[in-house]
Specification:
Layout: E1 4-8, H1 26-36, E2 40-42, H2 53-61, E3 66-74, H3 82-98, E4 103-108, H4 127-148, E5 151-154, H5 165-173, E6 180-185, H6 186-191, H7 196-202, E7 207-212, E8 214-215, H8 217-226, H9 230-235, E9 239-240, H10 249-258, E10 263-267, H11 279-291, E11 298-299
Parallel strand pairs: 1-10, 1-11, 2-3, 3-4, 4-5, 5-6, 6-7, 7-10
Antiparallel strand pairs: 8-9
Length: 311
């Protein structure tokens, strides 16, 4: 039987940066995750949680928490970018592996300024740039697995060069499934007008990880009409707690369960910046909602069975 192991992430507590006055301290984040009933978390931005493996292990174990994945970004379509990207990846992958995590979520860097919406580079890649990105990500996935034993899960993102359903299809066609699979972020797919269920059904073998997120369709329509940057979209409430937005979760979760894959489903709700008291009740309600979805594959425990060892 497939298993979708549910967790959450610093993003759901309004955490986008290693250090920022608008963000809650990491100790409060960890306390509230455990209190809300989750047992799996992601690292979030490297440096937000302690980077010393022994200290982080103590912090997690004292709260009954475990680590599913780290997160890093890439810009491998740019010339001479490998060393800078790899330097980031080695820190994240090493810490993830030391804490028992088996995945690193890799996001494409955005082509628009996060705050002003100004174009930092063209929104479309040339054929040569696309090839550099896909071959670079293949190399990255292979190196991460061979050196650290972690799997690369690629995360399409708003205002990036891998964003739309068409981008995702092309990316999966042009990358090696042995070392590169998809972190399907349901919110980002819907934000760009894509069909999550179609992606799952067309590429079931490439769904390696989930970020569970919903969007407010009315806000997203305004964002696209006014060409607003992603940060402003988030401030306006583009991402919303389930079941208030789209896509509908139960059909997606059932489709993933039918793939037979054991997988993480990490709850994310982009909320930067947010009042410090807002995330915890949302986390509680979201966990309760998911528990009532009736999807047989959902798990909220941290126990590992033999069939999950490959995770």
């Amino acid at each position: 039987m497939a298993s979708i192991r549910v967790g959450t992430a610093p993003d759901s507590w309004g955490v986008w940066f290693p250090s920022d006055a608008n963000q809650v301290p990491y100790t409060r984040f960890l306390d509230e995750v455990a209190k809300a009933g989750y047992e799996w978390i992601e690292l979030g931005p490297y440096g937000y949680l302690p980077t010393d493996p022994a200290q982080l292990r103590d912090e997690l174990e004292s709260r009954g928490l475990r680590l599913s994945a780290g997160t890093v970004s890439e810009r491998l379509h740019q010339p001479d970018s490998w060393n800078a990207v790899w330097d980031q990846v080695t820190d994240v992958a090493a810490l993830t592996a030391a804490l028992g995590g088996k995945h690193v979520v890799v996001l494409p860097e955005m082509w628009r300024d996060l705050y002003t919406g100004a174009e930092l580079e063209p929104g479309e890649l040339t054929a040569e740039q696309w090839q550099a990105k896909t071959t670079g990500v293949d190399r990255l996935g292979k190196a991460m697995f061979e050196q650290y034993g972690v799997r690369l899960q690629y995360h399409p993102h708003a205002d990036s060069h891998v964003e739309t359903e068409q981008d995702i299809t092309r990316f999966l066609q042009d990358t090696d499934p042995e070392f590169v699979n998809l972190c399907l972020d349901t919110g980002h797919v819907s934000y760009s007008g894509g069909d999550n269920l179609a992606i799952i059904n067309r590429h079931p073998e490439r769904i390696g990880y989930l970020h569970l997120k919903q969007v407010n369709s009315d806000v997203v329509a305004r964002v696209h009409a006014e060409k607003l940057p992603f940060s402003e979209a988030v401030t306006l409430g583009a991402m919303t707690e389930p079941p208030l937005g789209v896509p509908e979760f139960p059909p997606l979760l059932e489709a993933v369960a039918r793939t037979g894959a054991d997988i993480f489903g990490i709850v994310e709700q982009d909320m930067y910046p947010c009042p410090p008291d807002a995330p915890f009740p949302i986390a509680q309600r979201t966990r309760s909602y998911l528990g009532g979805c009736g999807v047989h594959a959902l798990r909220f425990d941290a126990g590992l069975s033999r069939s999950n060892d490959a995770l």
